């Protein structure tokens, strides 16, 4: 009975540690990183959709690297793009991009560190395959 009790206590300790680690409040950086990945994936899904509107092909590329200072200009350009307003998914994507831009320049301004200002890297990114979910 004693080994079973020790194993049960270890399991409880492990589960408690996992719960504590996952309940930590998100940092500004983690929120920006998660939102940028979500936007990039949504844009990729929009472009590969079977029932894609023809105007989606004309949208500016939307690969986001929050460590690249040019991402701010990329977000501004995407939000200001005048076409495709009739496509609901594009409107939702523009709202997310606007939120990310606001978070980056207002709330996280002092927390973010830009490692590069290579705008070409956002136009021709090296994309790795998506990780399996």
Automatic annotation (TrEMBL):
The keyword Transcription regulation does not apply. InterPro entries: CYTL1 (IPR029253). GO terms for biological process: positive regulation of transcription by RNA polymerase II. The keyword Signal applies. Residues 1-23 form the signal peptide. Keywords: Signal. This is CYTL1 protein.
